[in-house]
Structure formats: structure tokens, C-alpha cells
Amino acid sequence: MLKIFGKVLDFDLKDAESDENCTQTCFSDSDCILAFFNEESNYLLFFYNSTETLKVEETNRDDGFFVAFKTNLSTSDLEYCPIESEISPKIFLGEDPISWTKTSDSTWQFKKCVGNWKMFNRSNPEIIVCMQVFLTGTGTTQKEAKDYCSSMGKLVTGVATVQEPKWILSKLQGWLPEVGTFEGIWIDGERKTLETISFTWTDGYTEGYRAFESGNGWLSLNNTKGEPENCLAVSIAYGRNARINDVVCGIGTGKELGVACGYKLE
């Protein structure tokens, strides 16, 4: 635990319980990421799976407030006692290590996706997108997929890098190792012209077509019935490395198993 003089902004210890061992309590709890307490041992604990954003402000000794970060120190940190400005707290829970960011000389900020949602750091534009895959049943339609994400206040997500559909497919195969060809997951995107790669993203944060690079898209424009395939799903395509498949809007291939929901982390 990394202990400093500080307080968690927008939280008050006035009516908090007392525990003089709250730092050890946090350390022993696998989900706890931070302890905030005062000289009277009134404390609040903050937990990874229920916390999305926190701001910590450094204070003075006389203020009587303390913050203890749960973090991993590097080997080089252990070779000598680093000064506070040399330490960057980092949380190793969930899929993604998350660093506390120093937003000013006296303020640290922690931001993560809700629950165990996956974080993707995108460039051009530089944003963080949160995603999660949900199984909703064989034959899930596009409307059912949209409604499922909407019920959580989220959207069907688009994909902006090769890694994103790769991760979506890996989640599906983790649940269903024997998943078959074209048994896929709905994602955002609708073709508006006859060009092979010309999709409109409607999630409000996806841009560009880098996700289709390196042969990552299996785009046929039409199915064997001659029906236009202008929407997108992530699936296995005839054993190829391609993970993005164009499908008939609305009904897909009839084999869709779920949806990838997402949102931009503000």
C-alpha cells in the first residue's frame, strides 16, 4: 500500500465507521483498491468492481487526512526508497492494468470501465472505449442486439482496430470453444454504398476502417441467396483469419449468438 497525506474528492468521512486497521483491511481484500481515512481512523474503502472514477487530492499533514493506494512497485522501486513524485500507482485487477494519472501537481485521477468491461485505448481520435460481449441466444436479430445494449444505456459498438474484433471472438470462443462458422456476435456498422469497405458507424465514437486491415474482414457484399449483406458481425469465416463478416441487416446469418455493447469513457 502506498500511503500519502490526501483525501478523496467528493467523499466525506463525517459519518464513516472507525477502523484503525483499515489499510490492512483494504490490503487483504482482493477487490479493494484504496483506503481513505483520518487521524480518528474514520474510513472509507473503494472497490475495483464498483468504482469507475475517483479523484485524490494531496493534502498537508495538519489536515489529518490519509489515502492508501493498493499498487505494485517495480523491482527498481524496491532497490531504493523512491520519492513520491517517482511513484506511479497502478492497479492490476481485471483484464487491464490501470494507472492513476496525475492531473496536476496535487491531484490523482482513476478512471475505468464499469464492472469488468474491457478498455481499449484508441488513437485518431485518442479516446478510451469500453466494451463487453453478451450471449443472448442463437438467432439473435439485429434489433434484439440493439435493444439489449440499450437496456443498459449502452450502444452496439463498432470496432476500430484489428485487436478489438479479435478480443470479441476470443470471448465467444472462451464460452463456446466449438463455436461454428458464422456463429457470431453483432457489432455496429452499416454499408451505405456498393464499395466493399464503406461502413457508417452509428455508435458515436468509432471512426475509420483499420479494423479491416491484415485480412481481418470477410466481406462478400451478398450471401448465397443474392441478398445484400450490409451489416456486420464478428465470427469465424470458413477457417480464415478474418473475424469481421458482413451479414444481412436485421436477420444476419440466422446464427448470431449475441452482441458487443460499448461506450466511450469520458
Protein traits:
C-type_lectin-like/link_sf, C-type lectin domain-containing protein, 18 strands, 32% strand, alpha+beta, 266 residues, CTDL_fold, PAN-3_domain
The largest β sheet comes out as:
9 strands, mixed
Please give the share of residues in helix.
10-25%
Q: Specify the overall morphology.
A: elongated
Q: End-to-end distance, in Å?
A: 28 Å
Topology as a string of helices (H) and strands (E): EHEEEEHEEEEEEHEHEEEEEE
- Which structural class should the secondary elements be placed in? alpha+beta
Runs with pLDDT <50, length 5+? none
Radius of gyration in whole Å, from Cα?
23 Å
Average pLDDT across residues? 89
| Proportion in β-strands | 25-35%
SS element count, helices: 4
* Tally of DSSP β-strands: 18
Could you characterize the architecture of this molecule?
The protein has helices at residues 22-28, 75-79, 142-150, 163-175; strands at 2-8, 32-38, 43-47, 53-58, 65-69, 90-91, 98-99, 101-102, 107-111, 118-122, 127-135, 155-156, 185-191, 199-200, 217-218, 231-234, 244-247, 258-265. The mean pLDDT is 89. By secondary structure, it is α+β, with helices and mostly antiparallel strands. The protein has four helices and 18 strands. The chain is elongated. Helix content is 13%, strand content 32%. Strands 10, 11, 12, 13, 14, 15, 16, 17 and 18 form a nine-stranded mixed β-sheet that branches. It has a seven-stranded antiparallel β-sheet with strand order 3-2-5-1-4-9-8, covered by helices on one side. A two-stranded antiparallel sheet has the order 6-7.
